[in-house]
DUF4238 domain-containing protein (Hypsizygus marmoreus), 480 residues
Amino acid sequence: MPEFKNSPSSIHDLSTTMSAAISPSPIPLKDQYHHYIPRFVLRRYQPEGAPQFASAKKRNQAIQQARKKGNELEKIYVYDFPSESFDTLPIAKTYGTQNLYRDVKDPEDANYLEEKFSTLENTAAEVINIVHKTIENGTGIVTLKRSQADSLRKFLFLMHYRLDNLSKTYFDKNHPDNAPARDWIAKFVKDHGLATDVEAWIYGLRYFLDTPHSQIIQDAYKHVEKWGITALSKMMSTRVDPDVENFYTIAYFGHARSRFLCIWEAADGMEFVLTNVSFGLWEGLIMGVGGAHRLFTISPRIVLVLVHTFLRPDRRPPGIHLDSNFKDIPLNTPISNYRDGSLLTDDVTDDVTAFMKYTTSPAAANDEFYYRVTKLSPNQTFEVNRVFLKNVGPEGRLTFSSKEKVLPTLRRYLEDPPTFNDVQHTIPKFKKLVSYLSADLTGSRDPSSAAVPPAQASLESSSTKSSMYSFLNSPIAEEI
């Protein structure tokens, strides 16, 4: 029982005090490990021979049985750059952060957020599984309903928003990247009674998790209707009006409406590497501004790419200049099939606002989109890997499923390192990994016989960090 420091002055006070005294203390938040690369992606990187299961239930049962014996069933290769160590590590404790919600006051709130995110992640995993099965079956076109495509977009956005380092900076009014939004952040925090930057981040996370994709788009589009794209873009680069509500929806809007989805498949005999930055890495400059491509590795075989609408072959403005490693990769834009064509009269499709209302309506939920998979050449596959390897950083990690497939890629990268900074900081670490792998593969077939062609000069990537209000001035269109 707690000590009563002050005597109750009334029966009501006594009742209140006693109720508080006998109420159970809040359950402390348990230690949790939160992956910044989804587990369903990491499982795809298990080495050949890893156990396969018919269902998630059977997999979880097998994992629990193994843990009772002190073993971890699911493991992947990991090269750790800081320690320069190469090992096989448990998926359960790799590519994640401990206690993401450690600053959340109410444990129930933290558990609520994690349960909501887990539901979204499961839905996204089902959508991505459609991509895998389509490609495994030899079908070159992936079909998704609008509701599925929307869930995938929402998940990809929140995987970025949910990063541990962003919890402290996304709503930090003193962060240099947030300078134009400084006054808006100050008013937002005050209006909602938020004490810290992390509380503001949690507030936004709850909004995104609780609000359907279509409603977030509608909330954001209100700003577009009120200000117009040009004025809104200028506001984001100068000073955001403090009275704008839900301004953080603009970042989501840019993610969902100013980029279209492409699906790239690695060349035969090669694979895409996985690094600590492989799930959401920016690449390429359009007219000197970052954000041409955003890469999400989902398996050794497949990368999802969000491409800026300025690069659509059917809409690319004349004179647009692109600096990118991927200039030679053809872009297959999705094809739309509106299930209720009667709603899409010329008046609707020619009117941006009317079309926006349709695409966020229940009637549009069963629209379908067809994505033609782009099979990359060996050169193109290497260029994607080059971007990942360049951006891994001296404190990063690198994973792959096949030593035989990754070794030629690493050797070629060492022959043609992209920048002086890489030579100084990461090239020695890559050399040590090549040494490890070469020793492991001694006596096997010559790994240099794999499909990677000779090195040749290419444009390098530009990795940019996204902020709450940054997105390129783009046409408002149907971008799925």
Q: What stands out?
A: The two ends are 58 Å apart (CA to CA). The CA atoms of residues 167 and 198 lie 5 Å apart. Residues 107-136 form the longest helix (30 residues).
